[in-house]
Amino acid sequence: MKVTFVIGPSGVGKSSLIEREYAGRREVFIFNIARKAKELFGSYQAMEDGDMELQAINASCSEAFMALMEGKEVVVEYYTDGFDDGLFAMTKKAKSLGVRIEVIALTCDVDEAWNRVQKAGSAYFPSARIKEDTEFIFMGILEDVEFNLDFDRICEIGGEGGTISFFRFKKGSQDRFFFTTDENGYFDFEPDYEFEKKEGVNYIEEFDNFKEAFTALLDKYPIFGLVPLEVHSRYKSEFRSAYQHYLRGKQALQANQKWNFYLN
């Protein structure tokens, strides 16, 4: 896991450097709410719409969280103005989790920075506008990573509608299991009380054991008819037994050769 903070005041070229050096790299996720809003809706104007902004926040949270849990690099654009306790708090939290940290500080002449901002016009979104949101939301992501450090992806299955992922994590001294799909966006686990639920969050059902969770997964999704992308070696025997049972009950269907490859 690595977090790279690209920092500096407005107009110094933070976004330009990130697009040039990091955009399009599979092992990197760029955490910038406004950038995600433009990606989802085609324009920074989406940040003026509460529902669209919430969708951008949810997508950014989910993708940054999963990137860190998968050991990838997350690049965070951060506006500095001399009141940057939030940056220090984020770097301190990340370091406490064993996350590698890099800080890239950009500067340039004040007049040049101003000219860049004016020249960009509507193509420019000032990172100053999302400074506090970046601090608050990314700190929450790091806290979620801390909670889920003992965390296994049991399998990932692909289909036309996206992917389905099945996970094990440690909650206290107890193993817990859940599964999620691309459409879940930013997720959290079901709270004990209804009033604790937050708007815009998709709540995921937890299971006490592998068998219960796996049965629920099979009941909801026809996973053996889809394409396996990853199967954790520790759980192959359970998947093999379930797959053999599936084939006995679906004799009219041809065996999925990709599952055969993963489970042999």
TrEMBL record:
Gene3D superfamilies the UniProt entry points to: P-loop containing nucleotide triphosphate hydrolases (3.40.50.300)
SUPFAM superfamilies xref list: P-loop containing nucleoside triphosphate hydrolases
InterPro entries linked to this entry: P-loop_NTPase
Stated name of the protein: Uncharacterized protein
